[in-house]
Amino acid sequence: MSTLPRSTLALGIILVAVAVLISLPFPFFSRQWHIFMHILGAILFIGNIVITAVWMILAVRTGQRPVVHFSARVVNQADVLFTIPGVLLILLNGLHLAPAYGSGDILGASWVQAALGLLILSGAVWAGFLLRYQNRLVRLSASGAQLSDEFLAVFRNWGIWGGIATVLPIISLILMVFKPRLWG
After folding, report:
1. Tens digit of pLDDT for each residue in 35-63?
2. Cα distance between residue 68 and residue 170, in whole Å
3. Residue of 155, 136, 133, 166 whose CA lies nearest to 63
4. How many CB atoms lie within 10 A of CB 25?
5. In Å, how far are 35, 37, 129, 178 from 100, measured between CA atoms?
6. What is the pLDDT of residues 56-88, one digit of tens each?
7. Hey, which of 3, 43, 83, 162 would disulfide with 79, CB 3.0 to 4.6 Å?
8. What's this model's pTM, rounded to 2 decimal places?
9. Residues 159, 165, 167, CA angle at the centre, nearest 5°?
10. Whole-number Å distance between alpha carbons of 57 and 76
11. Rounded to whole angstroms, what are the CA distances from 38 to 149, 166, 169?
């Protein structure tokens, strides 16, 4: 994320702080509040990862390097402004809500265990692969008359790992909605 403007980082930090504050288990936040914040987090997170993928695909299809460069930079900014706060809203509010489904235990329900595991795995893919590819896409699209073969190879890898990182939380979302008993 070294390509982020300071203003985006500052706003990201503020949004993270707000996401944490509005997710704390204060007595004046009702269960409905935490459900709403949890759903809002899922919308921000999944919405952003789907939309930024579509946006990058459409930008690359133009073949216009400046358009692709702008889009690649904005993907990193959107992660800071939407993905990270969305994940925090999901996790913090989900951890507050989960004991009601697991007989008082946060990890008492099998679907909570699976959904949380998939979310963590998606985060590991993002941190382990996607961030590196995203930063390379920004650098590789910064100059030249056209997109290089190296850019297209990195973009292909970004798409593969991005697809994996997108499918995992969608499965997690399905588990949260249907709450199936998976084991135990």
Report:
1. 999 999 999 999 999 999 999 999 999 99
2. 27
3. 155
4. 10
5. 12, 16, 35, 15
6. 999 999 999 999 999 999 999 999 999 999 999
7. 83
8. 0.92
9. 100
10. 15
11. 41, 18, 13
